[in-house]
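Support reply, case 0932

Customer input (verbatim):
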Amino acid sequence: MLENDLKRLTRLTAILTQLQSKRLVTASALAAKFSVSKRTIYRDIKALEQTGVPIYAEEGKGYKVMDGYRIPPIMFSESEANALITAEKLIVENNDSSFVKEYCEAISKIRSVLKSNTKDKADLLYNRLILESKREEKPTSNFLSILQLAITNFELAQIKYYSPNSKEITNRIIEPFALYTNQEIWLLIAFCRLRKDYRAFRLDRIKKLTMLQQTFEPHKITIEDYFEMSRKKC
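Our regenerated output:
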């Protein structure tokens, strides 16, 4: 029962975000997005209304929330909204699918707190921004979001890594330290316990990533120290 309640609470929050991020949302669209029936969506909408959320239904068009209703109370200027929309276009071209997914979810929440006229202008700008993609058609990795958490929480990881020179896949236990990108590929800088030294791993060559549910002591070097050590090795 508790699990079902948690699922419903999560869905109600997500529905509210959808209502705030779009001018109108249909019950059919919500049902498809959350893989539930339209009858379930009707019950969810009623539950939100009972909590005081001012939701209105436009006959034959869909649902909307009262203009000016915001959770949380954050407002963005048109220029700030445009900067976020431009960043979204750039992020969608990123080679790591996990990063794209997390960013798009975040942008959806940000869109939900824009005023209606700013939201309309942001949508217009998004459709008028054309970026020529130079990356491969398919994402090359799906580990960036996990590794970001590993860096900030000092979590140990195990990877299966492909080395093109030896054409071998090796198992490494690593201490993630930093991430670097040149807009085409992502590199993970980590202390490799196999090599007993810091190494740079291309994310597109990591064949498998497993978090070990263990932590390590924070590194004593800075990112500047790492680059200085790398220059000395050259």
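We compared this against your earlier run and they match. Two observations from our side: The chain has a mean pLDDT of 83. The helical segments are 2-21, 27-34, 38-50, 78-92, 97-111, 116-128, 144-153, 223-233. Please reopen the case if you see a mismatch on your end.
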